[in-house]
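Thread title: Can someone regenerate the structure for this chain?

I was given the following input by a collaborator and told the matching structure tokens would be attached. They weren't. Posting the sequence so someone can regenerate them.
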Amino acid sequence: MSPISTPPLMNKKVNDFVVKFANVNGSGSASANSMFAKAIFRMGIPVSPRNIFPSNIQGAPTWYEVRICEQGYLGRRAGKVELMVSVNPQSMADDVNEVCEGGYFFYDNTYPLDFKLIRDDINYIGLPLTQIVNATFNDPRRRQLFKNIIYVGSLSYLIGIEFSALESIVADTFKAKPKLIEPNVSALQLGFDEAKKAFNEPLPIQLERRNKNDGKIMLEGNAACGLGAVYGGATVCAWYPITPSTSVAEGFEKYANKLRKDPETGKNNFAIIQAEDELSAIGMVIGSNWNGARSFTATSGPGVSLMQEFLGLAYFAEVPAVLIDVQRAGPSTGMPTRTQQSDLLISAYASHGDTKQVCLFPATPKECFELTADAFDIAERLQTPVIMLTDLDLGMNEHICDDLEWDDSREFDRGKVLSAEDLDNMDRFGRYLDIDGDGIPNRTIPGTHAEKGAFFTRGTSRDEYAIYTEKGEAYQRNMERLLVKWKTAPEYLPKPEITNRAASSSSSGNGIGVIHYGTSMAATHEALDQMSADGVAVNDLRVLAFPFSDEVKAFIDQHDQIFVVEQNRDAQMKTLLVNELEVAPRDLQSVLEFNGDPISATQIREGIENNLKTDSVVKSA
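Best answer:
Regenerated them for you:
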């Protein structure tokens, strides 16, 4: 069986190319495509898969893009792909156009290919997938599912996936259902044999075993958040389902069922409550935290909008709470299955009046795990809500990261919680009294001391002893103390990560600096490494938390030209930097991407190079 056209073959590429799968949503392809990516990971080759799916349940086109990069760059690669596996007639016209010149279009040739889909500069690889499954399986559902497994098996031959790696993935996937192992391995073998029979030799894009993934794992950010909540001491999760955050609560339940059960009775030591809406969910979180439990919720932009008033209550009443916001494209319901970094401002200034909320910005699943656990300590230390902003790309895709670690000797930081003995030694407990000048008052857990420890929690104005008052001077003292606490907060937050690539260029500064956060990290580092290799070195700072530490302002002051990379239309991080650090807007230039796809190194590099001032360029050594 020969290709339809015979353009010049692509030069051999080893461990550096992109494979994209075009499927039908709801066809079971996600499991097979994930198997493909995980097998490459087990070969020790860095791999970065991304599931691109519609917001309907079944029937529409869906894609799964896998970047293989031996150098370890895991951001999305812009441009066309080397291999397109297209098994969805609905999307074939678009799929053909995504193949690079000399690349490969793999399709089901049980039926003739429309001549309109034929390009003379790419290679067509046909395998009769439908014919094969019809001849092998009687059950229609098995035909649909195993068609996916068969094309993965054929790719094992075509691009060099080690068959043993695929077998190990199947064994792990179906270890709870061992009867399914043999049929899936047989389907893989069938695909391998059919491809070997049809094609004289494999493709020039090939995989070769490496050991680049030692000490690494593949994990979804949402699952990592759920596990981090368990390790962070959470015992209550109140939530309302919303894409793309639902699997945070599901992950918490999965891990809590293993790790949060009473060893003697087997009963759950945790509670998961599906609320009637997002407003109820955050209300339950605040109530349970006020009672002393560590509680959290997970949502996306529309949920954060609905939670505004309760977040203001928690800020003003100084009740700890943790909220995980898995961002998606907005506004309104936007594109609920596309990624963005568009909730910064609504989160940082959540609620009405003079309100500021602590925010965390993880970039990897490992940081999702660690920062979720840290968020509960931070919330209790500062007695305030903590909002962690991930996004769909990080939350719902599997990413390579360092293996997770935990110090079993670690103790939870509950902050300034007074015991009954502490209260006995005090003349009077002032719930909102600043004792040591850091803006953080003492608090009690309900029931600690009936006479001295009780106070009335309210969202209306009060004095230092929680007594209701509408006197302006008392309100102003309280608001000024909250601002002192805000200035204290960076002491307890993760510091920014700075990568210095450039030496001092002139008396005016250090040339070019780039500020980024969250999932922009991988693409930013790749872009700046490319620029440095070409002789233009750029330093970068990754923001991990808001409020900003002094290092962020110092970084801006030390560079002649600053670019801010973010995945939203309105340059929301730039707005925060201008507002909070009193930076002149003209001193910050934006590199923006907001079409719902993860930002790429190419977009970042072009955004920087097209706006460089020549006197800011630093030549690398």
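The two ends are 53 Å apart (CA to CA).
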